[in-house]
Amino acid sequence: MGDLTLSNVTKSFGATQVIKGVDLEVNDGEFCVFVGPSGCGKSTLLRMVAGLEDVTSGDVRIDGERINDLAPAKREIAMVFQSYALYPHLTVRDNMGLALKQAGTPKAEIAAATEKAAAMLDLGPLMARRPSELSGGQRQRVAIGRAIVRTPKLFLFDEPLSNLDAALRVATRIEIARLHRELGATMIYVTHDQVEAMTLADKIVVLRAGRVEQVGRPMDIYNDPDNTFVAGFIGSPQMNFLKSGLLGLRSDRLGIRPEHLEISTSAGQIEGRVSHVEKLGGETLTYVRTPDHELLTVRQFGEHDHPVEQAVWLTPDQSRAFHFDAEGQRLRA
Ligand SMILES: Nc1ncnc2c1ncn2[C@@H]1O[C@H](COP(=O)(O)OP(=O)(O)OP(=O)(O)O)[C@@H](O)[C@H]1O
């Protein structure tokens, strides 16, 4: 089992409160991603679950048991960090088996657990090497392997992919998703990368300045955001926000994703000029400067030519628009 419950959890460093009352349930077997901008408190929250930071107030429970005062080693939690934190003088095999050895596990059991994890992560041929003889991606797989051998109740990942290059990040992301499926374990994963959040999570927790802004399944958060912060944070490129008054609408702000903004050179609702074009191969992003809005982004599939400074018209697809009040809260029909 590996249910995690946070009840009104706060954290202060000196006089500064950085976690401001977080309530959260992560169910057994769930892949939960904490996402949010730099400094919003993702790592602090994770470190409190791991026992690496004290909880200032509130309760942290695993399977119903309050663990606020339980030593990290007793929590049955394994954590994978951005810096792989491997012992340089130990082989891959010994790095992976170390925690079991320290716990006094019989040698044969350590060997079996290590071999099993190595097979899952395709580390077999590398077992005799030392960390300095591995690539960054291989080191991160060893760090993940070290977490797996302990069969913990909870896996915690703190931005594990951020040291890897783009291609390796995608490959390792897929690997982590597969591991989650195979192990069926509860995983909590911190990232500021909303693509990782969207692709890995069963449940996304969007954080801002120490508070939870919204919790939900990825596509529910994407399709039904509660406020402009969540709407702007989840989705790449970012959602456009328009002043609805100018469009004759009653809400204060209208949110429209770049793929739901039509661009035309002849007619439309919002006049503007092309500021910049990015051709990404499969799609084209056109940035349009308008007198009353910030730069608006239009996403079109395929290749499109819009000369810089060309006069264009934009029209939001009203059926795909989101409406928000002056405070940025969503107005649902
Ligand atoms: N030991 C500490 N002492 C004082 N302030 C801290 C300490 N650790 C974190 N903070 C502050 O707490 C806030 C949350 O930090 P945290 O590292 O949890 O954010 P984060 O969302 O993980 O950010 P990032 O994505 O940049 O890693 C920040 O304002 C940070 O400066």
TrEMBL record:
Protein name: ATP-binding cassette domain-containing protein
Keywords of the record: ATP-binding, Nucleotide-binding
Nucleotide-binding listed as a keyword: yes
Signal peptide: none
Record-level Gene Ontology MF annotations: ATP binding
Domain ABC transporter: 4-234
Any coiled-coil regions, as ranges: none
InterPro entries linked to this entry: AAA+_ATPase, ABC_transporter-like_ATP-bd, ABC_transporter-like_CS, ABC_transpr_MalK-like, ABC_transpr_MalK/UgpC-like, Transp-assoc_OB_typ2
SMART domains (alphabetical): AAA
Phylogenetic classification of the source organism: Bacteria, Pseudomonadati, Pseudomonadota, Alphaproteobacteria, Rhodobacterales
PROSITE patterns in the record: ABC_TRANSPORTER_1, ABC_TRANSPORTER_2
Pfam families: ABC_tran, TOBE_2
Keyword Nucleotide-binding among record annotations: yes
Source organism (scientific name): Paracoccus marinaquae
PANTHER family: MALTODEXTRIN IMPORT ATP-BINDING PROTEIN MSMX, MALTOSE_MALTODEXTRIN IMPORT ATP-BINDING PROTEIN MALK
